[in-house]
Write a structure and sequence with these properties.
520 residues; 19 helices; 85% helix; single chain
Length: 520
C-alpha cells in the first residue's frame, strides 16, 4: 500500500509540475525503454524463474547451495545487463523512432526523449539486481523489506528528481524534466541498496563466482529462455501501443500532445489496486506453490492457487467498479492542479475507466503466470503471449483507425487482451494441475460479482447526488470521494458478509492473525 500510494504521490507531482504534454510525454517514453527490458527480464522471466529454482534448492539442498546459485547468477547477469544498457544508450535515437514515431513531428520532443533515455538506461541494471534480491527474500518468507522497496524508489526518485529539476537543471540550461530522469536512475539504485541489509541478515554476501556449469543456474536460464520469449510478446504489445499513442491526431489531423501522458497517468491509478492486491498476493503465493510443486504435493498446490485467485476476485472486482464510477472525481482530486488542466482530467479518467475493465485479468495473470513457472511449464504463458501480439495489434488498429476512439481505444484494447489471456491461462491451468477448485471459485465469483453490482449502483447514485447538489469543483469531487467510497465499501462488505463469502473470511483471518502477532 505504501509503495502504491507513494507512487501515486510521485505521479501527482509530475501532473502538477509538468502536466500532460511534451515534457511528460518525453519522460514517459524514455522511461518506458529501460522499463520495457525490466519487465522483460527482471520482474518477469528472471523473478519467476529465480524464485522457483531458488525455493526448490532451499527445500532440497539447503541454504548454502541456494546462496551459491544466487552468486553465480549475479556474476553472469551484471556484465550482460551492463552491456545491454550501453547498447540501449548508443542506439537510443533509433529506439525512440521505433517506439514513438510521432515524437519526431513535434519540435524538440524526440531529442528530449533520447537524452532522457540515455540518462535512465542504467536503471535496468539496478532493477535486475533489485528483482533478484526481492526473490531471495521472498523465498525466505520475508516480504516487508522487498515490498517497501518500491516506496523507497518513489520517495528517493521524487525528492532527488525535484531537487535536480529546479535547482541544478536551470543552472545547466536543461529542461527541468531531465532532473526527474536523474531522480529515476538514483531511485533505482536506492531500491536495490534498501534490500541489501535483509540479504545480509540471511547470511547472503555477494562474491564473484564463475562456476557457470552449475545445473541449477542453467535451470534458471532454461526457465528464463521461453519465459523471455513469452514476455517479449507482451513487450511487443507495449511497443505497438506506444507507436499508436504517439500518432494519435486531432480533428485537423495534427499530432496530439497528451495521449501518452493520459495513458500513463491512468495506468498508474490502475496499478494501485493491481499492486496492492494482485502483485502482493502473487508475491506471497509464488514461494508457497513453488515448495508445493517441489514436493509434488498437487492438492496443496491447487488449494493455494484457488484461494489466491479467490482473494484476487474479492479485492479487484469491486476496486475496478469503484474506479470506473468515480474515475473523474479521483483523477480530478489527485492530479488536477498546476499544469494539469480540467481537459486532462477528463481524458485521463476516460482512459482509467477503459483500463479498469481488465483489472481482474491483470491481477489474475500475476498469480497464474508464476504458477506455470513453478511447475516448470513455460509453454502455456509463451503461447498466450504470442497470440496476444496479433490480437493486440488488430484491436488497436480497429479501435484507432476504424472507430477513431483515440487513447481510450488503446486502453480498452489492452484491457481486452489481458482479460482474454487470463481466461486462456486459467483454462490451461485447470488441465495442467488437474483442476483448480473450479466450483468453489465460481461460486465465490458469482457472489462477489453480485455484491459488486449493488455497490456500483450505490456509488453511482451517491456520486450523481453530490454532483447535483455541489457541482464539480475540487471540493465537490473530494466530498464525492469522502461519501461514495465509504458508502460503497460498507455496502460491499455488508453484502459479502451476509452471503458468507469464504474469501472474505480468509482475508479477515490473515489480517487479524498479523495484527495479533504484531501486538505480542
Amino acid at each position: 500500500m505504501l509503495s502504491r500510494l507513494t507512487g501515486l504521490a510521485r505521479e501527482a507531482a509530475f501532473a502538477g509540475f509538468f502536466g500532460a504534454g511534451v515534457a511528460y510525454d518525453a519522460y514517459l517514453g524514455a522511461f518506458r525503454i529501460p522499463n520495457l527490458f525490466r519487465d522483460l527480464l527482471a520482474e518477469g522471466a528472471l523473478s519467476s524463474a529465480f524464485v522457483a529454482v531458488f525455493s526448490k534448492t532451499l527445500t532440497e539442498e539447503g541454504r548454502e547451495r541456494a546462496f551459491d546459485l544466487s552468486n553465480r547468477l549475479t556474476t553472469l547477469l551484471v556484465p550482460a545487463v551492463g552491456l545491454l544498457c550501453l547498447v540501449g544508450a548508443v542506439f537510443a535515437p533509433a529506439v525512440v523512432d521505433l517506439m514513438f514515431p510521432g515524437f519526431g513531428e513535434v519540435e524538440g520532443k524526440k531529442e528530449l526523449t533520447v537524452l532522457l533515455t540515455r540518462i535512465m538506461m542504467p536503471f535496468l541494471l539496478f532493477a535486475v539486481l533489485s528483482a533478484k534480491a526481492m526473490g531471495a527474500l521472498q523465498s525466505h518468507d520475508r516480504f516487508l523489506m522487498p515490498s517497501l522497496s518500491s516506496a523507497v524508489f518513489n520517495v528517493t526518485s521524487l525528492s532527488i528528481g525535484l531537487g535536480v529539476a529546479f535547482w541544478v537543471a536551470p543552472v545547466l540550461g536543461l529542461n527541468p524534466i531531465v532532473g526527474m530522469g536523474v531522480g529515476a536512475l538514483l531511485g533505482g539504485l536506492f531500491q536495490y541498496l534498501w534490500q541489501v541489509p535483509g540479504l545480509r541478515q540471511l547470511g547472503m554476501r555477494y562474491r564473484l563466482d564463475f562456476s557457470w556449469r552449475d545445473p541449477r543456474l542453467w535451470q534458471v536460464l532454461k526457465l528464463m529462455g521461453p519465459a523471455v520469449l513469452g514476455a517479449a510478446a507482451v513487450q511487443i504489445n507495449v511497443v505497438v501501443n506506444s507507436n499508436f499513442a504517439s500518432q494519435i491526431t486531432n480533428a485537423q489531423g495534427e499530432i496530439l500532445d497528451g495521449p501518452v501522458s493520459w495513458l500513463g497517468y491512468a495506468f498508474r491509478f490502475m496499478q494501485l489496486p493491481l499492486g496492492l492486491f494482485g502483485v502482493a498476493i502473487g508475491s506471497a503465493t509464488l514461494p508457497a506453490i513453488s515448495r508445493s510443486a517441489a514436493r509434488g504435493d498437487m492438492p496443496e498446490f491447487r488449494d493455494t492457487l484457488s484461494r489466491s485467485l479467490g482473494l484476487v476476485f474479492l479485492l479487484t472486482l469491486p476496486s475496478a467498479a469503484g474506479l470506473i464510477v468515480l474515475s473523474e472525481s479521483i483523477v480530478g482530486v489527485i492530479y488536477q492542479w498546476g499544469a494539469f488542466s480540467a481537459y486532462d482530467t477528463q481524458q485521463t479518467a476516460l482512459a482509467l475507466s477503459a483500463f479498469c475493465l481488465g483489472l481482474v485479468g491483470y491481477a489474475g495473470m500475476k498469480i497464474l503466470t508464476p504458477a506455470f513457472y513453478a511447475l516448470d511449464d513455460v509453454r502455456a504463458p509463451a503461447v498466450v503471449s504470442t497470440l496476444s501480439i496479433f490480437l493486440n495489434y488488430g484491436l488497436n488498429w480497429f479501435m484507432i483507425r476504424r472507430l477513431g476512439w483515440g487513447h481510450a481505444g488503446l486502453a480498452l484494447s489492452t484491457a481486452s487482451v489481458t482479460t482474454l489471456s487470463f481466461l486462456f491461462l486459467f483454462l490451461s491451468m485447470r488441465t495442467r494441475a488437474g483442476g483448480v477448485e473450479g466450483r468453489r471459485l465460481w461460486a465465490g465469483f458469482v457472489k462477489i460479482a453480485a455484491a459488486t453490482v449493488v455497490m456500483t449502483v450505490v456509488c453511482w447514485g451517491s456520486s450523481r447526488f453530490v454532483a447535483a447538489q455541489v457541482g464539480v469543483s475540487w471540493t465537490a469531487r473530494a466530498l464525492d470521494l469522502a461519501i461514495s467510497i465509504p458508502l460503497g465499501a460498507a455496502t460491499f462488505f455488508g453484502l459479502s458478509r451476509a452471503m458468507g463469502l469464504t474469501e472474505l473470511r480468509l482475508a479477515e483471518e490473515a489480517i487479524l492473525a498479523r495484527l495479533r502477532r504484531r501486538s505480542r
